[in-house]
Design brief:
- It is built from seven helices and nine strands.
- Strand 1 and strand 2 form a beta hairpin.
- The strands form two sheets. It has a six-stranded mixed sheet, sandwiched between helices. Strands 2-1-4 form a three-stranded antiparallel sheet, with helices on one face.
- It is globular, with a radius of gyration of 19 Å.
- The protein has a domain of 129 residues: 3-Layer(aba) Sandwich (Rossmann fold).
- It is an alpha/beta fold and 264 residues long.
């Protein structure tokens, strides 16, 4: 499934003020492509992801999906927080989206087991979230998103709450999952090395209101390995992205109109 984001803007407004979050964002995520969204804090990355997911309406512009319509769900989201129901087992958490789609019980169980096995959770089906490690809880979240078999998988900083070792292991597992499923993925992160390691292309957004500042193709072969982080192509891409984000962050600090200017 191809995702077309066409001139999307978003302004948060109430009686007292208007806060522009995005301004004229246009980009395309090709079918089976893994694209990372990255930018300085407050640039609207998560807002854009929520608009693609249909959780927020844009103030202007639109999002289109171009591809086969057989998928039960167009998109599914994996959140930064694990967002699991504590009273449900891992199996029942994975089945939740299927219940919402009205999938019969036997088919729910069969499909949930498939993605539990795919995410390395076999043997933990009857465990509750408090009995699982952070990495395992996030695997449940990923399995739940995959179980509805979406055309597009949206991921909002899914590994940011994990320790460094678990995060690297989860990145490797996500790459293996992507290789098996070939889902179109739009992935929000604030971690430059993570973006370069995972993605085919990195979209860098400007400071608020977020605009597309640059599109950085990642010239690394697949399958990706940890050793590639030392390759010149990896280092060059990371350096280019950091230079862009650092410039934006400095401009934001120097802007007297920023919200915290009076107190900084």
């Amino acid at each position: 499934m191809r995702v077309v984001i066409d001139d999307v803007s978003k302004t948060y407004a109430d009686r007292h003020r208007h806060v522009p979050a995005l301004a004229g964002v246009s980009l395309t995520v090709e079918a089976e492509e893994f694209v990372a969204l990255l930018g300085p804090s407050g640039c609207g990355k998560s807002t854009l992801l929520s608009i693609v997911a249909g959780l927020l309406a844009p103030t202007a512009g639109a999002v289109y999906f171009d591809g086969p319509a057989e998928a039960p769900a167009t998109t599914a989201m994996v959140f930064q927080e694990f967002a699991l129901f504590p009273w449900r087992t891992a199996q029942r958490n994975v089945e939740f989206g299927l219940e919402e789609l009205g999938v019969p019980r036997a088919e729910r169980a069969r499909r949930a087991r498939r993605y539990i096995e795919l995410t390395g959770l076999a043997g933990f089906e009857r465990r509750y979230p408090h009995e699982l490690s952070g990495g395992m809880r996030q695997r449940v979240g990923i399995a739940r998103a995959l179980a509805v078999e979406p055309a597009v998988l949206l991921m909002d900083e899914p590994f940011s709450a994990l320790d460094a070792q678990t995060r690297l292991l989860m990145q490797e597992e996500l790459l293996a999952l992507w290789d098996q499923t070939r889902k179109t993925i739009l992935y929000v992160t604030h971690n430059i090395h993570e973006a370069v390691y995972l993605a085919d292309r990195v979209i860098v957004l400007s400071r608020r209101p977020g605009r597309v500042l640059a599109e950085i193709p990642i010239e690394l072969k697949r399958p990706r390995t940890e050793a590639m982080m030392g390759e010149p192509a990896f280092i060059d891409a990371a350096d280019r992205i950091w230079a862009l984000i650092k410039t934006q962050a400095r401009e934001a600090l120097a802007d007297p109109a920023r919200p915290d200017a009076a107190t900084s």
